[in-house]
Amino acid sequence: MRALQLVTNAQSRFFNQQVRYLEAAGVETETLPVPGARRFGDGTVDGRSPLNYLRLYPSVLRRSFGDYDLVHANYGLTAPAAVAQPSLPVVVSLWGSDLMGRYGPVSALCARLADAVVVMSPEMAERLDRDCHVIPHGVDLDRFAPADVGEARADLGWDPDARHVLFPYPPERGVKDFPRAERVVEATRERVDGRVELHTVTGVPHERMSVYMNAADALLITSRREGSPNSVKEAMACNLPVVSTDVGDVRARLRDVSPSSVEVSDEGLASSLADVLAAGERSDGREAAREVSVQRSNERLRDVYRSVLSN
Question: In 3D, which of 261, 259, 257, 255 has the Cα closest to residue 281?
Answer without folding.
Answer: 259
